């Protein structure tokens, strides 16, 4: 598990401090705060950024829109971004809309408004509207990373950190080295969503990450993962598992 990384582009130190405080309270990780378009562009393309909050007016000029135009020229690297402004001008709003932002937040804002704006931005980016509203164990997948809502806080779990997924009643439990996270997906839905050969169903109750296997005892139908978890290999899944395991080894 890791926190969602956010880049802040803001030129007012006081406003930046308020924003950072709210984000920390919401368990986000602020990677950097900058008012320089050059530095922001460098950070955007070189750092692990999940979401960007952009003040439209920097130094009294709409440089935030300029930044959005710059990153929009690289659709292969686009990340969700939210505009932030105290301006109520329709012209500013209409101009900002042309860059296709994933959110638009007016100052002053409160923590709840910020939380909703960021959730909506991620939902829009993943093209899964209302995900975090309608489901008690909501999750969405963006670029091999699950964004999961737990205790009203958004966290991210990379596929590469997952050891196994276990059925729990109507939900599934994602297990990493230290934690587990409940999501409202069946194992079949999980496999269809991630669409990667590294994860394979080995039992009616389990999907495992093949990269996390430590040992396999085929005579005992037993798989031992690197976190020392013992997973039973179901008979109906044995042939498919052996085929995948031989390819990987």
From TrEMBL:
<feature type="domain" description="HTH LytTR-type">
    <location>
        <begin position="146"/>
        <end position="247"/>
    </location>
</feature>
<keyword id="KW-0597">Phosphoprotein</keyword>
<dbReference type="InterPro" id="IPR011006">
    <property type="entry name" value="CheY-like_superfamily"/>
</dbReference>
<dbReference type="InterPro" id="IPR001789">
    <property type="entry name" value="Sig_transdc_resp-reg_receiver"/>
</dbReference>
<protein>
    <submittedName>
        <fullName>LytR/AlgR family response regulator transcription factor</fullName>
    </submittedName>
</protein>
<dbReference type="Pfam" id="PF00072">
    <property type="entry name" value="Response_reg"/>
</dbReference>
<feature type="modified residue" description="4-aspartylphosphate">
    <location>
        <position position="55"/>
    </location>
</feature>
<dbReference type="InterPro" id="IPR046947">
    <property type="entry name" value="LytR-like"/>
</dbReference>
<dbReference type="InterPro" id="IPR007492">
    <property type="entry name" value="LytTR_DNA-bd_dom"/>
</dbReference>
<dbReference type="Pfam" id="PF04397">
    <property type="entry name" value="LytTR"/>
</dbReference>
<feature type="domain" description="Response regulatory">
    <location>
        <begin position="5"/>
        <end position="122"/>
    </location>
</feature>
């Amino acid at each position: 598990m890791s926190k969602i990384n956010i880049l802040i582009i803001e030129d007012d130190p006081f406003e930046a401090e308020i924003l950072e405080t709210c984000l920390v309270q919401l368990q986000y990780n602020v990677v950097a705060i900058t008012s320089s378009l050059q530095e922001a562009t460098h950070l955007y393309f070189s750092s692990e950024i999940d979401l960007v909050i952009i003040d439209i007016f920097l130094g009294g000029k709409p440089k935030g829109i300029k930044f959005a135009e710059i990153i929009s020229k690289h659709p292969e690297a686009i990340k969700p971004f939210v505009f932030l402004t105290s301006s109520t001008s329709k012209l500013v709003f209409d101009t900002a809309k042309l860059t296709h932002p994933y959110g638009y937040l007016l100052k002053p804002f409160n923590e709840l408004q910020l939380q909703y704006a960021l959730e909506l931005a991620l939902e829009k980016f993943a093209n899964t509207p209302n995900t975090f509203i309608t489901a008690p164990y909501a999750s969405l997948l963006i670029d091999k990373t699950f964004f999961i809502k737990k205790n009203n806080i958004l966290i991210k779990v990379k596929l590469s950190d997952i050891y196994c997924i276990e059925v729990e009643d109507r939900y599934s439990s994602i297990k990493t080295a230290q934690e587990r996270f409940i999501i409202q997906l069946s194992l079949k839905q999980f496999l269809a969503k991630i669409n990667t050969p590294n994860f394979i169903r080995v039992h009616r109750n389990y999907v495992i990450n093949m990269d996390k296997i430590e040992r396999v005892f085929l005579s005992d139908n037993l798989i031992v993962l690197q976190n020392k978890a013992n997973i039973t290999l179901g008979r109906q899944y044995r042939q498919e598992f052996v085929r995948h395991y031989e390819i990987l080894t």
